[in-house]
Write a structure and sequence with these properties.
ATP-binding, binds adenosine-5'-triphosphate, about 210 residues, binds 1-O-pyrophosphono-5-O-phosphono-alpha-D-ribofuranose, histidine biosynthesis, alpha/beta, elongated
């Protein structure tokens, strides 16, 4: 039987992803949240999970080192990998937004600080606004406070980080949630393994949706 490798984003999405995999019948040898191991074997089936930095998940899947990946839509919008995006998993929900101290003033070229340069550039480009992108690795909210940029493009979940730093959402860009992606070749060559797995996930998500509505 073909083996199936699943790349999971470490960090915020990991716990919910493992939970979903448990719910569809997978158990991983030795898995616990504090472990430093990066590969876990499923107890009965020929399935492995590998724990990858979120932004690297599309790379593993695009190149076939993993057949399946679970990663945020934010990463997919930024990375534009050549993979199939199969399912919206409905967790890891947040939004991409433009935020700043105040409404934008267009009397000079806008500077935009972000961890997502492609998303930011694309958003303003489509509006016909030329921007200067400043790439940061984190704590992006600091940039407008310290005069480094006019605004930021970042993820907003609860809005707490913006609020505690005196910033506000200026414009909504896109909704984000965790997605299931599949390598294009694996989707065909390992279809007997991958299609049932996807179907089980779909069924489980439908059951959960029904549970919420009831
Ligand atoms: N409040 C949030 N902030 C950031 N990401 C969130 C949030 N809520 C959900 N997410 C989702 O979780 C994913 C993983 O976020 P996480 O912070 O673990 O990794 P990361 O953005 O690569 O961070 P780091 O660079 O610090 O490792 C994001 O890509 C996004 O899809
Ligand atoms: O709306 P909230 O619920 O406050 O969440 C949004 C914050 O969470 C993320 O940062 P993260 O914690 O990943 O840290 P970072 O600044 O190092 O990217 C994101 O970049 C925002 O700063």
């Amino acid at each position: 039987m073909d083996n199936v490798n699943i790349a999971l984003a470490k960090g915020r999405l990991a716990r919910k992803t493992i939970e979903l995999l448990h719910e569809i019948g997978f158990q991983f040898n030795g898995w616990n949240e504090d472990s430093r191991k990066l590969i876990f074997q499923e107890t009965k089936q020929n399935v492995k999970i590998i724990l990858v930095k979120a932004s690297d998940v599309p790379t593993y899947v695009e190149r076939g080192a993993a057949d399946i990946g679970i990663v945020g839509k934010d990463t997919l919008l930024e990375r534009k990998a050549d993979v199939y995006e199969i399912l919206d998993l409905g967790f890891g929900k947040c939004k991409f937004a433009v935020a700043g101290l105040d409404d934008l003033v267009f009397d000079h070229k806008l500077t935009v600080a972000t961890k997502y340069p492609h998303v930011a550039k694309n958003f303003f480009y489509k509006k016909g606004i030329d921007v200067d992108i400043i790439y940061l690795h984190g704590s992006v909210e600091l940039a407008p406070l310290m005069g480094l940029s006019d605004c930021i493009v970042d993820i907003v979940e609860t809005g707490q980080t913006l609020k505690e730093n005196g910033l506000k959402v200026i414009e909504h860009i896109a909704d984000v949630s965790a997605r299931l992606i599949v390598n294009k070749a694996s989707f065909k060559t390992k279809s007997e393994r991958i299609h049932p797995l996807v179907q089980r996930m779909k069924n489980m998500l439908a059951v959960k949706e029904d549970g919420k509505r009831a």
